[in-house]
Specification:
It contains seven helices and four strands; from the N terminus they run ββααβαβαααα. The radius of gyration is 20 Å and the shape is globular. It folds into two domains: 82 residues, 2-enoyl-CoA Hydratase, Chain A, domain 1, CATH 3.90.226.10; 49 residues, no CATH class. Helix content is 54%, strand content 6%. Helix 5 runs antiparallel to helix 6. Strands 1-4 form a two-stranded parallel ribbon. The protein has a two-stranded antiparallel sheet with strand order 2-3. The longest helix has 16 residues. By secondary structure, the protein is mainly alpha-helical.
Length: 155
């Protein structure tokens, strides 16, 4: 499940493994393609072939997790602070980042830059950009206007 997350944190007592190997299966829920994007292929293969557990420190060293915390309380406090920070940003900007990071992973730089240009031209309402700039200048949290509905009349 951790391989499906955008940002990954854990406590120091966490362990990670590809458990399917230990029960006579090959991982079949997207584990391999996701893990290969986050950690070196040699680590994916070692974890897959052996079913061996890796500890939190190793997970951080190989890039599987962003940070390791001593306690669950510290981890949750960090998670909630980060969620609050993300929620303070333009929802379209955050969505665009996710879409374009994922797109860029599988496409070359020129294609990704073209897509970013199209995304920015088509998706960003001027009101969100104006509010973000105004809030920054006034040293306050932005208050983004609601997005317009996709359709105003039923089809």
């Amino acid at each position: 499940m951790i391989s499906a997350g955008d940002i990954r944190w854990c406590t120091k007592d966490a362990v990670f493994c590809i458990q399917e190997t230990n029960i006579g299966m090959t991982a079949d829920v997207g584990t391999f393609p996701r893990l290969q994007r986050y950690i070196p292929e040699g680590w994916v293969k070692e974890m897959a072939y052996t079913g061996r557990r890796i500890d939190a420190a190793t997970a951080k060293d190989i890039g599987l997790v962003n940070e390791v915390f001593d306690t669950q309380e510290e981890c949750l406090a960090h998670v909630m602070a980060t969620a609050k920070e993300i929620a303070s940003k333009s929802p379209l900007a955050v969505t665009g980042c996710k879409v374009l990071i994922n797109y860029g992973r599988d496409h070359n730089t020129a294609d990704t830059l073209d897509y970013i240009g199209v995304w920015n031209a088509a998706m960003f309402p001027p009101s969100h950009i104006q509010e973000a700039v105004a809030a920054m200048g006034e040293k306050r949290e932005p208050d983004f206007p609601d997005l317009l509905p996709l359709r105003t009349t039923p089809m």
